[in-house]
Amino acid sequence: MFTKPLLKVMREEFAKDIQGFEKKFNVKVELGSISFGECEFTSKLKVTSNEENSEQKMFENSCQMYGLQNNHYGYVFKARTKNGLQEFKLVGFDNSRNKYPIKAINTIDGKTLLFTTDAIKEIAWKQFQLRETDSDGNPIVK
Questions:
Q1: Hey, which end of the chain has fewer CB within 10 Å, N or C?
Q2: pTM for this prediction
Q3: CATH top-level class of 54-128
């Protein structure tokens, strides 16, 4: 039978035992809140990479799908929101979102905002002077 005190002890034991796994795979494991009944308990397990620049590597793996290049990671740009003109940093993609797949972080409050591919391309043309390039990196003239 599961009780709060028992689950507290089990959580502590889990944290100790999982350390070897975290070191071996260079990850951070977090055990979420626990829901329990008499005969079972459930919890969400979150595993995140400890690799430096893992977000940047994910960006580099997906950027060409959205018409961007590896070196566009981290670009800071300005975009108009309901709170006025704000500054954002380009950080990644949410591949499960078709209309708003591009993620950027507000440089002031740290909140993530999603952008359309067209919006980022328009911003890129205006603010970064970025141009579409061929596979060799040469500008495409239209």
A1: C
A2: 0.53
A3: mainly beta
